[in-house]
Amino acid sequence: MPLQTPPLRGVHAERGAKFTEFGGWDMPVEFDSIRTEHEAVREDVGIFDVSHMGQIHVTGPDATELMQRLTSNDVSRLEVGDSQYAAIIDEEGHIIDDTVVYRLPDDEAVGEPTYLFVPNAGTDEATHERWISYRNEWDLEATVDNRTDEYAMFAVQGPNAADLVADVTEESVTDLSRFEARYGTVDDVRCWIARTGYTGEDGFELIVPWSEAERTWSLFDCQPCGLGARDTLRIEAGLLLAGQDFDLESNPRTPYEAGIGFTVALDTEFVGRDVLAKVSEEGSEERLVGFQLIDRGVPRHGYDITNTESRVVGAVTSGTMSPSLEKAIGLGYVPTEYAEPGTTLQVVVRGQSKKARVETTPFIDTV
User: Fold this and answer.
1) What is the DSSP letter of 243?
2) What is the pTM of this model?
3) How far apart are CA 256 and CA 261, in angstroms?
4) Which of 45, 114, 194, 298 has the greatest CB tally within 10 Å of its CB?
């Protein structure tokens, strides 16, 4: 099957980007260098094309109930312009995906609640089918549209992101709080602008019509960044990557194991809720932890984690050489007895055991 291409694929190629397959998309992994792009976001501002992320639109009389029953957080708390981080859970309590749910202005024609949520790359079709299937099973009245191929999505991130976004938008955005959003206008293009991101820095994500992507992108005079820097930035911030830090097929995990138990609203009813209530009461046997290598080496996904007696106790899910810390860091699941910060472990790097220490995440100061 041919790779899907973002609307700016040609623009990125002209800029000299290197590309990689990610979630079925042909995406820029690097423009100049991962370090250059990483440092731009930590010290100034950078822009990412994240048009590979899904866009699912839900509206109708029962839209709130459908969203409430298929995501783990309390959707009923969202006012127009609010958003929340949530998990999509299966019947066994495992994470299918993580997502951000936005409450859009009510449908103007009939005044019905409207939501937009963003599943991870390559999962939009399956997620859309899941929503339709449960809507029909529960006999709810809601319209569910997959609009992934109608909108581009850009992430402007860094300590100077607010000033840059304010310079190109007609409406004020600097008064938005974290996880607040509103419609704004960028060069006569109506955009959904949210103070959200995936880097640990302040920043905004803009959802713009696919046909206006090039014009909107060109207004942001800053460092373009690819998926390589996006990965090093999110690991430093201790943020999960779907398909890597959790995977329903190869590494099924509950939100409590993955460290996102704060997304679980047990006072609501949703698919998988009863299983998670039991896990919450009894506790998890394993937890995702951050760690730093003390010995020289770089941890990678799939490397074994052992205790000091060289017994395998877990596996690395994400790892990198941190450009900000200039230290090798990573994430991985271990039994709770090894999860306390300061605990000494080992990571097997290319057949050699490297001393590691469990660290509190995020690894860096975040907004």
Assistant:
1) T
2) 0.97
3) 5
4) 194
